[in-house]
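User: I'm new to structure prediction. If I give you an amino acid sequence, what do you actually give back? Let's try with this one:
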Amino acid sequence: MITFPNAKINIGLDIIRRRPDGYHDLVTAMVPTDWRDVLEIVPASAPASTLTVTGRSVDCPPESNLVMKALRLMQRTYGLDRVGEMDIYLHKVIPDGAGLGGGSADAAFTLRMVNDIAGLGASQSELARLAASLGADCAFFVYNTPMLCTGIGDRLSPLPLSLNGLTLAIIKPDSISVNTRQAYSGVTPAVPDVPLPDLLALPVSEWQGRVVNAFEASVFPQFPALSAIKTRLLSLGALYASMSGSGSAIYALFDSSAHHADKLSVTISAAFPSCHIHVSPTWQ
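Assistant: Good question. You get back a string of structure tokens that encode the predicted 3D arrangement of the chain. For your 284 residues, that looks like this:
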């Protein structure tokens, strides 16, 4: 079985409070994109499971990879006799350290695929509960539809948000990765004057300056190049630009009627050398 785990972007991210357990309560909208990895899973050809990774380098031993952690979780939960051993082939396309959730997507898609291959019959809610134990973003990718995420990002509710008619551009500098712990260390939690869902109900053309990512105040002083990318995207005609998650990817939404994806890709590639770039028309 082959699937294509996709990246996400965060539209708005409010950090509400620091919790007694050291985590933070936040409010953010997560939206799937069509920047995708490639994941193949088949029953193992030998007594033990294997993981083969190609594409972008992933610097961790196989058993530490979220994909293998997801497989092991399914084996523990449903029994090795039902799940069996698997050979997994992961081709990485989505950049790491970008706030795009590539590793979380790979893990969630692994849960979904193992469920189908082994005929376990687990529901979406069951898989989402398991996914949440692997990482806060993982549960989102079980549903893989626009969601309002609260708590530590693990409480999900469907969000009536459509980005039809827009072109998405994502830019991830090759030389910049943001440490999430470091990004949180510079944040001052605060409850926004206007709740994020109310702001997202406005036209996209009214989001800039209102729909904010609280991490930008912490991350941009450390990495001025990210702020410069956002400013440049707006100067190129973006309706809205923001950092995704805790960075380091910056994305922008353009009116498709004024910015055809193919021409925009050429423009952005010229404007941002030494960056990983993805430009696509609407994906919903």
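You can read the tokens as a compact description of the fold. Here is one thing that stands out. The mean pLDDT is 94.
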